[in-house]
Amino acid sequence: MGRRIVSGKTRHGASEVSSDLQRLGFSEYEARTYLTLLQLKPATAYEVSREAGLPRSNTYSALESLTKKMAVQPISESPVRYVPVEPAVLLGRMSREVKDVCERLKNDLRGVTKKDESDFVWRVEGGPNVDRKIKELIDGAQQHVWIKAAADILLPHSEELKRASSRGVSVLIILFGSDPKPFEFGRNCSVYLHEGNGVRMGGADNLFTITVDYKIALTASVAGDVVGAFTRSEPIVRMAETLIRHDYYMAEIFNRFGKQIDDEFGPFLTALRRKTFSPDQLALLEDNLRQAGAQRSPRVSQSSRNARTSRKT
Predict the structure, then answer these.
(1) CA 311 from centroid of its chain's CA atoms
(2) pTM
(3) Structural domain boundaries enclosing 93
(4) Number of compact structural domains in the chain
């Protein structure tokens, strides 16, 4: 039976086809019986049993069950012979029935659910899954998208951000990087380099944070194993939005008062960071300072001016 099905009759092997039928509610014996009958039609239970290698009692039971499911039909007596319902007819009817059941359940289960999903924080594992979730959030945005991320991590989502901006969604980006231009998508988009320079000093650049429409937030660790947390919980969403909002404030303040801030707290706010960082963060800070030569990179203050201009035009 397996050789018959594979040999030009279907693109998949017998086991794969049988598994798919079982996903639609067939038992293993029912699936094997139906597939064998497609090859032999018409056939008796004995002939199906012999060809499929099934016990005869199981074949009789499978044929009786398949008849009730309107997947096979008896066409003669003494002996009883069966034919299968054509796959297109059978699967078309099953598809309509499943769709109708799902629609009813979708409406009925709304009244059963007691716990609001906003109480949950969902875990999203793996880079592809996190990327799909970010794309879903951007594409579903209606009011605004706020993002804090490194340029290399954000770049794959440029097309989604461009579409969002073009349909009137307000896009605000706090960027770790040196060049905001690849992310300037028109008048609805504002890009600010983190702390006015975009230089990576701590480990925050290893996080991708996005909030949408004051309702949804996702934060993902993109260093090593990619793991994200997605939620509609109001306190957590508000916390994420406050983080991005204050980074926006900081970028504007650095743009105007950068020299005074450097004089007071040192380049890259090192005096403040050394007071609050954990030992691991301090080690990373010192390494980043060595790479930066303990010199503040030239501020790309024009990005903030461009952002303000874009909102006015």
Answers:
(1) 31
(2) 0.57
(3) 2-108
(4) 2
